[in-house]
Amino acid sequence: MDGLRTRWPNSEVLFASKSLPAVGMYRLAQDEGLSVDIAGGGELRLALAAGVDPGRIHFHGNAKTDAELRMALDAGIDTIIVDNDDEIDRLERLLERPQKLLLRVIPGVDAKTHASQATGGANSKFGLPIDQAERAIARMRSHRLMRFDGVHLHIGSQILGTGQFAEAVEKISAVGTFPTYDVGGGLGVAYTYDEQAPGVDDYLDAIVDAARANLPADARLLIEPGRSMVARAGITLYRATTVKRTGRTFVAVDGGLADQMDIALTQQRYEAILADRLLEPWTETVQLVGRQCESGDLLVDGAAMPPARIGDLVAMAATGAYAYTMSNNYNGALKPAIVFVADGEARLVTRRETYDDLLATHAPAMAAALV
Ligand SMILES: *Cc1c(COP(=O)(O)O)cnc(C)c1O
């Protein structure tokens, strides 16, 4: 945040909360002076429950419902990032007070990342192409309660270069002159020993140099990092449940793609260690697998480690972003707990799901079984 502010004082950093949607994290973001962005009623409820100031909430999404928009308007959130013309129709019906709006545009930038993480290419489902933006902006400007404030873009996630960000700033400047430009998130991180990611300073230099060259000097500049804030702050702890030496060595743990979907979705490689036997020689290369009923539930394809035993503590690094986000109940798995650790102190912020939590939504079927 300070890095952006020293380079471009009229700026704001929004934590992209979908990367770690936990009440404890919303609270931490707010305490650190960040604004937050949300993409739906659920994330709005989590943010409000955490005590996030509605004046610091920005609402994204390509398919916001009337009910969600009403929740956001009732809460008095700062900005709605309008995705499409239907949403302008909805807002025409729903607005009773002035509301600040940005328009999401498709910059037509190749983010050079995994296809499921690229969101700014010409065929993106998010936002409007630049040639349709003008009409949408005119509609918003002519409405007495719509306070059109500028444009937004987000080119994708896990981006390992800086040129793409500069290109996006240049493209968005062509849409017109506005008070605010929100250039999204997407900075990638190093997940493995070999991967290299740009540093935050290089990333900010690329964006702000492009802003100096292309945007009005008095514009407000927003960025929305998610992954780069939380990915490497998080590790997942598993216990080895089964060690099977057949053709290969399979070390199976008490979790899997129910808590770590990212691998199946994007083939991202991670690193794992045996946390309690780190200093023993790493003499075996294993398939670190989860317990969900998919052969694709492979956490690390070929992880070097000491010969594993049942009960070993397996730590998988850099799982702070998008792991809890996509956790699910596959095979009746219970969503994991989240523990914050700082200065040697551990604090539970999200408890593990219980079997009662799992059953709660099925109450209608259980009631029916009783009659
Ligand atoms: C996901 C998302 C972000 C954050 O992306 P990261 O890669 O986690 O930094 C920011 N803005 C929007 C609109 C997003 O959808």
From TrEMBL:
<keyword id="KW-0456">Lyase</keyword>
<keyword id="KW-0028">Amino-acid biosynthesis</keyword>
<comment type="pathway">
    <text>Amino-acid biosynthesis; L-lysine biosynthesis via DAP pathway; L-lysine from DL-2,6-diaminopimelate: step 1/1.</text>
</comment>
<keyword id="KW-0210">Decarboxylase</keyword>
<keyword id="KW-0457">Lysine biosynthesis</keyword>
<dbReference type="InterPro" id="IPR029066">
    <property type="entry name" value="PLP-binding_barrel"/>
</dbReference>
<dbReference type="InterPro" id="IPR002986">
    <property type="entry name" value="DAP_deCOOHase_LysA"/>
</dbReference>
<dbReference type="InterPro" id="IPR009006">
    <property type="entry name" value="Ala_racemase/Decarboxylase_C"/>
</dbReference>
<dbReference type="InterPro" id="IPR022644">
    <property type="entry name" value="De-COase2_N"/>
</dbReference>
<protein>
    <recommendedName>
        <fullName>Diaminopimelate decarboxylase</fullName>
        <ecNumber>4.1.1.20</ecNumber>
    </recommendedName>
</protein>
<feature type="domain" description="Orn/DAP/Arg decarboxylase 2 N-terminal">
    <location>
        <begin position="6"/>
        <end position="231"/>
    </location>
</feature>
<dbReference type="Pfam" id="PF02784">
    <property type="entry name" value="Orn_Arg_deC_N"/>
</dbReference>
<dbReference type="InterPro" id="IPR000183">
    <property type="entry name" value="Orn/DAP/Arg_de-COase"/>
</dbReference>
<keyword id="KW-0663">Pyridoxal phosphate</keyword>
